[in-house]
Amino acid sequence: MTMYISAVFKELTRKRVFLVTIILTFVFLILFAFGVRELAGMEGQNQDSPAERMMNGMVLTVLGLFFAQFLAAFFVLFSAMGIVTGEQENGLLLAVAARPIPRWRLYLAKWTGQAVWIAVYSAVLFVSVVWTVHSLAGLPLLAEDLLRGLALFVWMPLLLLSLTMLGSVYLPMLGNGICAALLYGFALFCGLVEGVSVYEGTHPALEKFVLLVGLLLPTDSVYRRSLYEALGGADWAGLAVADMGPFSMPSVPSNVFLLYTMGYAAVLLLLGCRAFGRKDL
Question: Which DSSP state fits 246?
Fold first, then answer.
């Protein structure tokens, strides 16, 4: 397994998109830190109350993690959208599959290799954003809350990875990337619409539609639960539905839903293993 993790890292570093992703990530973190510092300086000049500074810190954290999840999602898409069909087209997959290894083990090894580096990248993003707001804006945070938020923030791109790899068995590289990006964007859009619905009241049809989309691709729901946990859980529930526009959270995914996401990922991996085992290379 260590061999596959190392091989995935070498393959990632060969891709120009990996270098571009790293550069854009550094640019984002630098600009975010600059913006947080400037806003924190304005708060000091205005002599805002501790409650106002805490609320502003929460808003900055929500905005920072919102764009961080974009980076994590597109890192998944660019690195995994051609993991099967892309290697099949260039002949690399046939050479690897010729070894006396069950195909399902090869598929899981590829998923694990990708998952390790995606988890590392997502964790660095999460810690960088949260630590920037904590150190520059003085947002109080608890280690237990951060660990729960970090685990869920990392779990979100791994769900997208499971879906993208399954699509890569059936679809060509570009088609799979477009399909996965559209599904991810649609789930994100539904989450934003649900946040806007706070102002006009929730509609039963809208609730059912958002729930259906969340079951189809639960990435946005997991992301929102990670925010809820990172910023205090139940202690922050009142502020979570405050005037944050599309970033408001009228509902928080339950623990049962998180268990569903684990079954969701397991089913996708099972389907991927079966499809890869039957695929004509």
Answer: G
